[in-house]
């Protein structure tokens, strides 16, 4: 089966392409390289010894996008391509609504025109806002506190209406918690441009002495050590979840929602201490004020994904820290 992967050269997309190729899917990647680099194609080939078809384009560009559908005739789509920085979305909401919504609408139009009935969407735990209780289940109230999260929630609603209007389309919505880590080969990982928004990429820049120290945003939360608690999930586990979702799209039409997390919550200090211990390196830090918009704790109940997709996270926080640092060291060789 041929799968079109939008944003397939990005952090989660590239790891998913590796898993797809190793499961003998044919992979077509469209990516505009706004948050990725073209050399990831070679890294994917080095890991899998398989090639992908690649088209550099913006998914919002309907003319160029249709040329890919005409030529490749994909049977399924995994849609990663989106802007995803919470802070940036607050500063540039229109850019986020335009890019994230229009790209998805263009894909829906192509699905109708080229009879593609299988769609896996990259959503986010951000759609739950700050939950009243934990762990978070898929039927919890949905509430967003930033434009990035609102784009994800709006797209979920668009896809729900789209599925209702068609009888043969299967859409799987995957709500990610906090993806970190890297492929064990050290060839793929997260390497954002500029000052990272997220915790693990920031830790890596401190480990690499590119940044002097980690700024921990608050240690006065109602958590075990006062720092924020999150459900960190290894990016390889997350990638494998997409293959389980793809299998589901072959079985029944409709729209289905799944949390992809480990079910374990770790604090910022837990992650820092684990990273230091498994990698034998010191991460200097200072405690700063809370970051606006952060919630104290957020972690998943992923039993539905296990029951209905047969998926659960296998890798722990130590592998996440080890693989992330290994990727950094390999990228400097
Ligand atoms: C994790 C914890 C921070 C950086 C966001 C998006 C979510 C998803 C993942 C896209 C928090 C603390 C962080 C730093 C810190 N992205 N922290 N110093 O905010 O849970 O989730 O990224 O899908 O949608 O909301 O991730 O890594 O930014 O923060 O202390 O320099 O680390 O306060 O407790 P977050 P994060």
Task: Explain what you see.
Helix content is about 40%, strand content about 20%. By secondary structure, the chain is α/β, with parallel strands linked by helices. The chain has a domain at about 1-180 and about 230-260: Rossmann fold (3-Layer(aba) Sandwich), CATH 3.40.50. It has a seven-stranded parallel beta sheet with strand order 3-2-1-4-5-6-11, sandwiched between helices. The protein has a three-stranded mixed beta sheet with strand order 12-9-14. β1, α1 (about 10-20) and β2 (about 25-30) form a beta-alpha-beta unit. The protein is globular and about 55 Å long. UDP-4-deoxy-4-formamido-beta-L-arabinopyranose binds near residues 176 and 291. UDP-4-deoxy-4-formamido-beta-L-arabinopyranose (WQD) binds near residues 176 and 178.
Q: What is the arithmetic mean of pLDDT?
A: 97
Q: Which architecture of one domain per CATH?
A: 3-Layer(aba) Sandwich
Structural class comes to alpha/beta
CATH superfamily of one domain: NAD(P)-binding Rossmann-like Domain
Bound molecules: UDP-4-deoxy-4-formamido-beta-L-arabinopyranose
Number of strands: 14
- Could you please say which CATH topology of one domain applies here? Rossmann fold
Low-confidence stretches: none
The spatial strand order of the largest sheet comes to 3-2-1-4-5-6-11
Q: What is the C-level CATH assignment of one domain? A: Alpha Beta
What is the distance, rounded to the nearest whole angstrom, between the alpha carbons of the first and last residues? Answer: 36 Å
Oligomeric category = single chain
- Rounded to an integer in angstroms, the radius of gyration calculated over CA atoms is 19 Å
Fraction in beta strands: 15-25%
User: What percentage of residues falls in helices of 4 or more residues?
Assistant: 40-55%
Number of helices: 11
How would you characterize the largest beta sheet?
7 strands, parallel
